[in-house]
Design brief:
Layout: E1 2-6, H1 21-32, E2 39-41, E3 44-51, E4 54-61, H2 68-79, E5 86-92, E6 100-103, H3 112-121, E7 127-132, H4 141-145, H5 151-158, H6 161-171, H7 176-183
Parallel strand pairs: 1-4, 1-5, 5-7
Antiparallel strand pairs: 2-3, 3-4, 6-7
Length: 188
C-alpha cells in the first residue's frame, strides 16, 4: 500500500496560502482522477482507493502543519504502510515558484511539517515532492508562508499541475531514483 500525503493547515483562513500547496496539489490530483470525497479518520481527511493495481491512501492531515507527523504515523501504523511507500508533498521556500524537486532523504530544510514527520517516523529517509513557493526576505517567514497566493503566482502553479499529476502517477510505476532523474530540474 502507498500513502501520498499533502501538507497544509486546516480551516478556511488557510485556504490558498503558500503553506497549503501540498493540500492544493493533492486535491487537484484527486479531482482529476475522480477519486471521490475525503472521509475523516485519526484527525486526517483521506481517500482509500486502488490505482495502477496498488492500494493507496491520499491523506491531508487536519492538525496544524507542524504536527502532521503524528497523523502520518497513525495511518502508517493502522494500515501497516512501509515508510518506503510514502510520498509527502510540501511547499519549499528555497525553490522558485513553478519549480519542484523530488528527494528521497535529507533534512527538513526548516519546514516544520517535515521536521515533525521526521521526528514521528524516526528517520529522514522518506520520499518527498517539494513545490517551490519562493521566498520574500522582506516579509517574516511565518507571515510569508501563511500569506495568500498572489494572482500572478497562481498561473505559475497551474503550469506545473500536470507535471505533479504525472509524478504521482509515475510514483506507482517507477523506482524513485528514475522518478528523480525524470523530473528534477535546475531551479529556473
Amino acid at each position: 500500500m502507498k500513502l501520498i500525503v499533502g501538507l497544509g493547515n486546516p480551516g478556511k483562513e488557510y485556504e490558498n496560502t503558500r503553506h497549503n500547496i501540498g493540500f492544493n496539489f493533492l486535491d487537484n490530483y484527486v479531482n482529476e482522477k475522480n477519486l471521490g470525497d475525503y472521509k475523516s479518520k485519526y484527525n486526517g481527511l483521506y481517500i482509500k482507493t486502488k490505482l495502477f493495481e496498488t492500494d493507496v491512501i491520499f491523506l491531508k492531515p487536519q492538525s496544524f502543519i507542524n504536527l502532521s507527523g503524528e497523523i502520518v504515523r497513525k495511518y502508517i501504523d493502522f494500515y501497516k504502510i512501509c515508510i518506503d511507500d510514502i510520498l509527502v508533498i510540501s511547499d519549499d521556500l528555497d525553490l522558485s515558484i513553478g519549480n519542484l524537486k523530488l528527494k528521497s532523504t535529507g533534512s527538513s530544510g526548516g519546514h516544520n511539517g517535515l521536521k515533525n514527520i521526521e521526528k514521528c517516523l524516526g528517520t529522514n529517509n522518506y520520499k518527498r515532492l517539494k513545490i517551490g513557493i519562493s521566498n520574500n526576505k522582506n516579509i517574516d517567514t511565518k507571515d510569508y508562508v501563511l500569506g495568500k497566493i498572489k494572482d500572478e503566482d497562481k498561473s505559475k502553479f497551474d503550469s506545473i499541475k500536470k507535471t505533479v499529476n504525472n509524478i504521482i502517477d509515475d510514483f506507482f510505476n517507477l523506482p524513485f531514483s528514475e522518478l528523480m532523474n525524470k523530473y528534477n530540474r535546475k531551479n529556473r
